[in-house]
Amino acid sequence: MEPLLLEELQVFQDASPITSLQLSSKRHQLYAGSATALAQLPLHRCGAYGKACAECCLARDPYCAWDGNTCTRYVPNTKRRFRRQDVRNGDPNVLCSEDPRRDTVPQKQLYGVEGSTVFLECIPKSLQAHILWTHQRAPNDPQREVRMDERVVRTERGVLLRSVQRADAGLYLCHATEHGFTQPLLRLSLEVIGARQATGAASAGDPQLAAGIPGRKVWYRDFLQLVERPPLGATDKLRFDFWKVRTKLPQRQQAAIKAVTEGDLGVCCLLLSLLASGPLVALATSHGFW
Description:
By secondary structure, this protein is α+β, with helices and mostly antiparallel strands.
């Protein structure tokens, strides 16, 4: 049987090397020790595979199975007709044909200012999944595969669109392909606001805001590095930095930003970058946030 990578973890905060490992089959726990600490890790984290039958089965985790409602811990004495898992094949076409949520795909609305940067985030539950992006400009247009180049950059967490153009607007679909099975994970509808429209809106709301928009470049490099491989503690620091920037804005602007960033690290990253360059203020103004 082929080796299967289920999860990658950094066990210790100080990145200490692991000097000993002990597996407890009875307790279903893995104990890892270093020179300064000891960690206890469960062998099953079935909730990490999402709430869909296909994702649970594609994971091919021997400790997890689909029980008809959720991905839950596999119990050997459970009746077979209530358990759906095939570690060798993991074929959702066979195991999940009766799942009513099979064709349900979440959708999100995104906005971008022409010439700025937009991040399309899509993270598969399985480490074995290959992500494919398609773009549909209008409802009657065909879906076309998104090609990567210097302006369209693939990351481990999605796709970064640099210098957004009007032609980038439309519906983006994130597909996951694994073990011969393809499923849509997410729909992202992108609306691109013209640079002049955004500048005019900012000027009408506050003349001082417009000065920060024309010719300003969104410095995405630190953001891209953080999203790709965030160092330990960087996510907390980013949220703190974003909070410091946000608290300097008027209360109405703070409330609007909080409403769209609550609990979403990816949005915090992008908005922190945009706050320094101007388009965020123009975009929010043009959509009536303030």
